[in-house]
Amino acid sequence: MTTNFNLLRSRLESEQKHLTEQLNQLETSVHSIEEGREGSPFGKREEGAAETMELEKGLTLEKRIKEQLAEVEHALHKFEEGNYGLCEGCGQPIDPARLEALPQAKLCMNCKAQQAKNAKGKISPG
Ligand SMILES: [Zn+2]
Predict the structure, then answer these.
(1) Contact 30, 60 (CB under 8 A)
(2) Which of 34, 61, 79, 83 has its CA 20 to 30 A from that of 108?
(3) How far does the centroid of ligand 1 lie from the alpha carbon of residue 10, in Å?
(4) What was the pLDDT predicted at 69?
(5) Within 13 A of 95's CA, how many CA atoms are on the CB side?
(6) Is the Cβ–Cβ distance between 107 and 94 less than 8 Å?
(7) Which element (helix H / strand E) includes 83?
(8) What pLDDT score was predicted for residue 39?
(9) 109 alpha carbon to ligand 1 midpoint, in Å?
(10) CA-CA distance, 57 to 88, in Å (whole number)?
(11) What radius of gyration do the chain's Cα atoms show?
């Protein structure tokens, strides 16, 4: 019945590294699109639209990665505080199987389901 928290922690750390690298790469490419736009003449609508799409795609992805990174860092912070693996909703230990699947999980299944119910209508799928 012992969850290998050290293993989960190292998984989170490598995830953090991976996400940070992704974010750096993305910021470089988004930045280069933005720079390219500044110098472009006003008339080139088609080109501009494609660039805008790329930019929006990049920014959406960037936002998602930042959210994931924040969750991973939050979980690592909980290791520091010694309360990793405890649900932030009810304070009960989170199911080890859930942590295995999602090491940065903040809530147990019950609280997660509750949260999803409360958030219904706010978040659109896809
Ligand atoms: Zn809970």
Answers:
(1) no
(2) 61
(3) 24
(4) 98
(5) 9
(6) yes
(7) none
(8) 61
(9) 7
(10) 32
(11) 20
The Å distance, Cα 92 to ligand 1 centre, comes to 6
CA of 88 to the centre of ligand 1 (A): 6
If you measure from the C-alpha of residue 118 to the centroid of ligand 1, how many angstroms do you get, rounded to a whole number?
14
Residues of the chain with pLDDT under 50: 1, 124-126
Is the pTM here over 0.90, yes or no? no
Segment holding 122, helix H or strand E = none
36 Cα: distance to centroid of ligand 1 (angstroms): 48
Give Cβ neighbours of residue 75 (< 8 Å, ≥ 6 apart).
Answer: 12, 84, 103, 104, 105, 106
Across the strands, what pairs with 86?
93
